[in-house]
């Protein structure tokens, strides 16, 4: 049996849905660095991309393309106050416990136990996928998001892709 060529299969699948060929991003350097302070002094936020929104917010469109929407979610949001609208993964378990894809309760527990310094004032949900205009991400959406993280004094962003 031959291995599946993931990139070719994705291009074939999304091409059949009318998407242009995807231009994969190639990073020549890793933007990672060691923490400047101990973890138990760091402020941590979450970013989820799995169509997760609070029930009072509009649902994400599971068929959207180039959706740069980004919802702010208060750190003390109730874990039972979420909905998921994404057709690209099975979110049955997350429908029962949002912490499967958006670990808001677990992060608060880590702060309570002193494992992390604090939970950021806001968490985030958005950038729901199928984003083909990556120049906009690099030049507009990501820098604007970084400004919001800086406003909240975030040291660590936990990216929770679905």
Salient structural properties:
162 residues, alpha/beta, five-stranded mixed β-sheet, two-stranded antiparallel ribbon, 4 helices, 27% helix, 18% strand
Question: Describe it for me?
Answer:
With 162 residues, the protein is of the alpha/beta class. The chain has one domain. The protein is built from four helices and seven strands, in the order αββββααββαβ. Strands 1, 3, 5, 6 and 7 form a five-stranded mixed sheet that branches. The protein is globular and about 50 Å long. The two termini are 29 Å apart. The mean pLDDT is 90.
- The overall average pLDDT, rounded, is 90
Overall, the morphology is globular
User: Assembly type of the shown chains?
Assistant: single chain
Beta-strand segment tally? 7
Major sheet size, sense and barrel closure: 5 strands, mixed
Fraction in helix: 25-40%
Low-confidence stretches: none
One letter per element, helices H and strands E, the order comes to HEEEEHHEEHE
Assess the beta-strand content as a share of residues.
15-25%
Termini Cα gap: 29 Å
Rg value: 17 Å
Number of helices: 4
Helix/strand/pairing category: alpha/beta
How many structural units, i.e. domains? 1
